[in-house]
Specification:
The protein is mainly beta. It has one helix and eleven strands. The strands form two sheets. Strands 2, 4, 5, 6, 9, 10 and 11 form a seven-stranded mixed sheet that branches. The chain has a four-stranded antiparallel sheet with strand order 1-3-8-7, with no helix packed on it.
Length: about 130
């Protein structure tokens, strides 16, 4: 069973950058789509970004607005989320999630947290104004 561990969160000022990593233990990310979600206090968990397996397509939520980039580091068995130009409204716990992706789905399915089989514990990102 794949276990996911997120790292890289922290406290930064608005405009700064952070890079989150999601590492897989007990397996590899081969054949998995890996997504990032976030949950702010008092709000529902929301989709941030995903990278699919077969095509390597990337999808982002509208609020990302080209500030974030998701990528794979296959050598390190990691998926990275580079976050630039951070805003206070980006403050949340960020989770990575993985799903077996032998058959690539229509984009809308990757936006749903119910589509994912494995979840990490989350890493806190706090952006001060």
């Amino acid at each position: 069973q794949v276990q996911l561990v997120e790292r890289g969160g922290g406290l930064v000022q608005a405009g700064a950058s952070l890079r989150l990593s999601c590492a897989a233990s007990g397996g590899t990310f081969s054949s998995y789509a890996v997504g990032w979600f976030r949950q702010a206090p008092g709000k529902e968990r929301e989709f941030v970004a995903v990278i699919t397996w077969r095509s390597g397509r990337t999808y982002y939520s509208a609020f990302v607005n080209s500030r974030f980039t998701i990528s794979r580091d296959n050598g390190a068995n990691m998926v990275l989320l580079q976050m630039n130009s951070l805003k206070p409204e980006d403050t949340a716990v960020y989770y990575c999630a993985a799903r077996r992706d032998q058959v690539e789905l229509p984009r809308v399915y990757y936006y749903r947290d119910s589509s994912y089989d494995y979840w990490g514990q989350g890493t806190q990102v706090t952006v001060s104004s």
